[in-house]
Amino acid sequence: MSKTDTKDTADFRQSTGACARAVSRDATVSLNFDNDATDVDVAASALPEIPANASAVEKVRIRGRSDAIALHRQHHDPKLHSQFAYTNATSSLCFSLAEQARVELLGAREFYGIESNLNAVLEQRYRLLTDAMQRSSAASGLAGEKLGVEHAISLYLREQLGGRLPPACNEAIGEWRDWLDEEVGPALQAGELPLDDQQGFADAFRQLLQQLDIEVEAGALLLHLPDC
């Protein structure tokens, strides 16, 4: 890497950190650029290292990941979240993805440009995921894998409460679409998940899981769905 490239990367890292602190309204936010990271870890404020000679698209994704960290810091109360946390791995992921969708939707409403940054990250994330599922199905000779219900619900929340999904996300939930429209849509149309109230959102989301015939008892989540 040339001295110019090194300076450009350092300048971009510095400006990205400054943006994260501004969005989060927290001067203590420090981004951790990790060579081993493949995606963002909002709790650890970690994201992949900036590649040498990063393209414009790669820089937008980096900003999107830093925006996700900043919005998590601004709108998410970890102590409150722990009161609603599930002990079962699947239900915990379902809840965490929905909560991150909530804070990112709030940020997209508040800050110009953040929505496009976040969508760039979502597009890459779900394009990689759907491509991996297709390769796995081709290698095994079995029917195509279906996106996990936790991803399907969180993407649907983003769409119904925020707007149009990036193409890869829309494709990813295609097999879930009829079920989501029939079972999840009515609750969202009724305004039962308040984005600006973390506790109210968590309460309503737990009730939604129960209404979907997803059992939430003693930290367990069991999904009863017809074949789609």
Structural class: mainly alpha
From the spread of the alpha carbons, the general shape counts as globular
SSE pattern, N- to C-terminal: HEEHHHHHHHHEE
Count structural domains: 2
Helix content: 55-70%
Radius of gyration: 18 Å
Spatial arrangement of strands, main beta sheet: 1-2
Strand percent estimate: 5-15%
What is the mean pLDDT? 85
The N- and C-terminal alpha carbons lie at a distance of 50 Å
Helical run tally: 9
How many β-strands, per DSSP?
A: 4
Largest sheet: 2 strands, parallel
Low-confidence parts:
217-228
Key terms for this structure?
228 residues, two-stranded parallel ribbon, 64% helix, disordered C terminus, two-stranded antiparallel sheet, mainly alpha
Topology readout:
Layout: H1 3-24, E1 32-34, E2 46-48, H2 56-75, H3 78-84, H4 89-110, H5 114-140, H6 149-162, H7 167-172, H8 177-189, H9 198-211, E3 214-217, E4 220-223
Parallel strand pairs: 1-2
Antiparallel strand pairs: 3-4
